Amino acid sequence: MDELAIFENFSIRRIYDKKSETWFFSVVDIISVLTDQKEFQKAKSYWSTLKGRLKKEESQVVTNCDRLKIKAHDGKYYQTDVANVETIFRLIQSVPSPKAEPIKLWLAKVGHERIQELANPEQALDRARDHWKKLGRSEKWIQQRMMSQETRNKLTDYWKDHGVKAGAEYAALTNIIHQEWSDLSIHQHKKLKGLESQNLRDHMNEAELIFTALAELSTRQIAENMQTDGFRENKSPQKKAAKSQKMPEKN
Q1: Residue 201 contacts by C-beta under 8 Å, 6 or more apart in sequence?
Q2: In this predicted model, what pLDDT tens digit does every residue of 119-162 receive, in sequence order?
Q3: Parallel, antiparallel, or unpaired for β 77-83 and 22-26?
């Protein structure tokens, strides 16, 4: 839930730094909102041009931007220009847009919500439920989605404790699990559903959520029995578990 935030119909990638209690947002994603441009390459081109102009003006906006690895729509992590809320506010002043004020208010709200959630994690769950309700999800679907997330968290906790690196290695193992039970890579599944940077699980039906959870549950149980350690050893349980939970083909 931390990796994506939703503003209107736009998905904005973000990273939370616990040490400084600061959100860092993808600059290109913010540019997409301000320019009302959903095509990533066009938004990226706009930012590249704007960044060049700001550098010539010796603006502190570019200087204050960081580069961190953030997940892209293909599930891989790439170095991406990011900035905190204060820098984003200054950036917004450089882009003529009717969405300038709404997104400022939204950014301030997102930052405040995260601080509250650290003190009371239940608020994060409540916010997730509200988001899914706005998407028209039923209570049954929401319950299944939350159970699926709990199963996912237990698996990633195992990986974390047994030498699997967050980011690219998590994504690769997750893709193996997904491909084994669905016959589709995550990228192919998202393409089939017409998704780009959106969270695939938020757009699964109940059956898909169930099979995903079963595959990840079985993966963790097999890994625990085998006492797998590291990325390579953890590839084997993914395939064994996911194949056993393969989704039946439709007639």
Answers
A1: 145, 148, 149, 209, 212
A2: 555 666 777 788 788 888 999 999 999 999 899 999 999 999 99
A3: antiparallel
